[in-house]
Amino acid sequence: MKKKISHRFNSLSFSQKLKLSVFFIGGVSLSVLLIINLIFWFFFSKQIYESNHDKITFASANLYEHFEAIENFSYKLIGNDSLQNSLVQANQPKDTSDKIKLKQEMQLLINALVLDEKDIRSVFLLNTHQENQVNFMADSNHLLDNLSVKAIVDSLPDGPSKGQWFFSENFSRAVYARKIFNTKRLALDYLGTIILTVDTSFIEQILNERKPPTSSELFILEYQDHYYTNSKLATATFDRYIELINKPSLPTPNYRVARFEGEKYFIVENHSTDRAFTFYSLQPNKDVLQKITHIELVIILTTLSLFIGIIALINHYISSLISPINKLASNMTSFQQNKDLSQLKRIDSLNQTDEIGVLYESYQQMIEEIDQLISQNYQAKILAQEIEFKALQAQLDPHFLYNTLDSINWLALNKEETEISQMVTSLAFLFKKKIDNSSTTTTIEDELDLINAYIAIQSIRFQHRFTFVPVILIDDLSQVIPKLIIQPLIENSFKYAVEKMSTPCLIQLKIFEKADCLIISVSDNGPGFSDHHLDLDANHGIGLKNIAARLTVKYQLETPLTIHSSPFNQTEVTLTIPLNDRSDSHEKNISC
């Protein structure tokens, strides 16, 4: 059976083998992922539900502790002998002065008892005639929204019983009230009513203590079939939430998931120990399961990693079949895209006598022929560059022009035109240096003299329209550099900056050493070059293009000239020249 399957697989085409492998690995991976996903979802969702239930249960218990503490405090008040004696006297006819004195005594007693109760805002003590004996009551008809003191007292049972809670609609205030009976007599005579106004800010504080609290959570408190919430909801919407929490729950104790208006809600229900309070928490199920959603994201990333691994395996499988041809194709493609001769490298021969072996041998012969052609072409370019440079120098009859300038100089001196004489002298010096083809190199000092002559000429023409600042940071000015590589850069600044600006232009020449290289930069604050000029095209004549070509040929540098242009801020042209002459070296792409 195994041999039969192997034979059947080997008889398939390459494409069929590849598809079959991908489908098989993908199917196994998806199956494993599905199983893992189901397991994660089951355990983590259950854990998240239980964790949220525990947090809400703990918060509900804390809330009830506060309510219970206030109820216990009321027991402490009504059982106080001094307070009961004072109430007995308050219910008897007395003079005004005696009543005031009695109220003061009860006020001091109440203040001492309530001192440590931080949740109680104020205490009101009523006698049997509903006359307030403690604290000032501004409005007995509106102790809470639409709730008067009389309504509170009337709602309390006539006999001894636990007090009752009253809450405002927005849950911001609460009142706890209970009647006081004389515990010293078996008849348990009615003595009055105590009303405690409660600061309910502890509710919001406890709800926010959970880590982290859910902003979309709806908290509902049920007390004696009345429902209260701290959220601002329309009455109709709140009523629908009440219907939702009153639906029969699922078998899972204390929490369930129910659908409300197209969205699932996680509902937790908790009762106080005396069953007087019921606390409900409603949260969108998607918010509760946010953590498991992150886990799902991890699973997705795992899936991507798994499939990337599969692709890598397939790529390795294919590469093992056609890697010899890929090596040739990669070399040829790299050369075609980058036009970089260094990419066209020799590769190791194959010990094969088939078609691929013949292809490799032909490739090696082609590389040798290309090397010879490159060498011949390179020498031809060097020769053409030198011919172009010398031809440009010889465009004018040097002796005729030099003698003419000398005559103009004498004529200007005879007429005491010193400015013209200075300009002609500078022009003659500049011309003499440019036509001197006895050498292709010069010193930095001679090049600076040439620049000074050029600046002198331009100073007469442009006067105050420019400022030239030379910054020479080297001591040895006798260093040899290629001829006419700095002055054209200065000329470029006049052409593209000074001539095009209506405001003064700053031109700076900076020469310094860095590592094993001489750095020459010329910068100005003119309009700079447009993007198509930054490529050193033919529009620059023998300027930047010629300088870059000469430095490349002489020093075998990959990028001897760079341009950085920021309009009206700084346009800088930088030359890089090795300190040691490498023109005869076989090294290429030397980097400073």
TrEMBL record:
GO terms for cellular component: membrane. The chain crosses the membrane at residues 20-44, 297-318. Residues 319-375 form the HAMP domain. Gene3D superfamilies: 6.10.340.10, Histidine kinase-like ATPase, C-terminal domain. Keywords: Kinase, Membrane, Phosphoprotein, Transferase, Transmembrane, Transmembrane helix. InterPro entries: Bact_2-comp_sensor_kinase, HAMP_dom, HATPase_C_sf, HATPase_dom, Sig_transdc_His_kin_internal. GO terms for molecular function: phosphorelay sensor kinase activity. It is found in: Membrane. CDD domains: HAMP. PROSITE patterns: HAMP. Signal peptide: none annotated. It comes from the Bacteria. This is Sensor histidine kinase. The lineage of its organism: Bacteria, Bacillati, Bacillota, Bacilli, Lactobacillales.
